[in-house]
Design brief:
Helices cover 8% and strands 22% of the residues. The protein has 64 residues and is mostly beta strands.
Length: 64
């Protein structure tokens, strides 16, 4: 079983700088303006720090 990070854009208010971007230890999350963050799957180590940090639960680490 693996894991995959996904963004639930309906949960993301998209009206501020995403605080979870700075929590990522490998820089896999980026954000343009106030848009929902984007995931660089090549960098993502699936640690779950961003999903645990996101107060709106917009970042989810799914088991696949």
């Amino acid at each position: 079983m693996g894991k995959k990070l996904k963004i639930i854009t309906e949960n993301c208010p998209q009206n501020h700088k995403c605080p979870a971007v700075n929590v990522c230890p490998v820089g896999a999350l980026t954000q343009e303006g106030f848009e929902a963050p984007k995931i660089d799957y090549e960098k993502c180590i699936k640690c779950g720090k961003c999903s645990n940090f996101c107060p709106k639960k917009a970042l989810v680490l799914d088991i696949i």
